[in-house]
Amino acid sequence: MDDSCEPSDQSDDKVGLRKSEMKKLLECQVCNQIFITPFILHCSHTFCKKCVMEYLRKNKKCPCCEKMIIKPPAHNRHVCLLLESFTPYLSEVETAMLNLRKAEHQQYFEEEFKKFENMVKSAQENGTKFLNIERRWSTEEKRIFRIGLERYEGRELELYCKLTGFSKEFINTSLPPALIIAARNVDAQIPQSSQTGINYDLLRDILRDIMTS
After folding, report:
1. Which among 73, 78, 71 has a CA at the least distance from the CA of 54?
2. Which has fewest Cβ within 10 Å: 58, 61, 133, 201?
3. 113, 137: one domain
């Protein structure tokens, strides 16, 4: 018997075990499958974006710990990085199933975005007044806008910001006074330079990050 084969078998077993353990850590507790666009609640539990958004329509407690949800879920970028490292080790069948689920989730959010667009269009047609990024906001107006910043992402977030005039074009073309007002409205840090005062190039970058986060 050739004992040289034994370490290799043991190594394969360990790799398989680590993969199984990691897969369990990267599973959504709602659908019991690998995360698709992981979102985290303030209680630190993470779920698929689609799963948690659908769940929150009918429930106000975390699916895992049942703590009351007091803040909208946020994109869990740390788990996204773990997924990027883990998915190359999936089998062909697992990868195919994951890609199928990704397509289903993408279709779901395409439909959700169309609903959001229609809701915005209806509000505009009915004469709804939106906040103006170039006007100083009250504490309550800032709080209301912040709810949307935390709730939306991607195209929905960009459209939400654009309703107030807070767009890429505004950031790129506005004069310094308007940028300062906008920064204070969205509670953005205003970067200072010891030599030139406010660093407006960096401020523009900060504002872009807010509307694309």
Report:
1. 73
2. 58
3. no
The token duo for 135 is 């006007």
Distance between CA atoms of 119 and 27, rounded to whole angstroms? 33
* Domain final residue pick, 95, 123, 151: 123
DSSP per-residue string spanning 112-152: HHHHHHHHHHHHHHTT-----TTSPPPHHHHHHHHHHHHH-
Q: What is the mean pLDDT of residues 1-16?
A: 46
- The sign one gets for the Cα dihedral 38, 42, 45, 47 is negative
pLDDT value at 4 more than 50: no
Question: Residue 104: its pLDDT value, please?
Answer: 96
- Give 26-52 as a DSSP string: TB-TTT-SB-SSEEE-TTS-EEEHHHH
Question: How many folded domains does the chain comprise?
Answer: 2
Q: Which two tokens stand for residue 187?
A: 């509670």
Q: Which among 84, 101, 123 is the end of a domain? A: 123
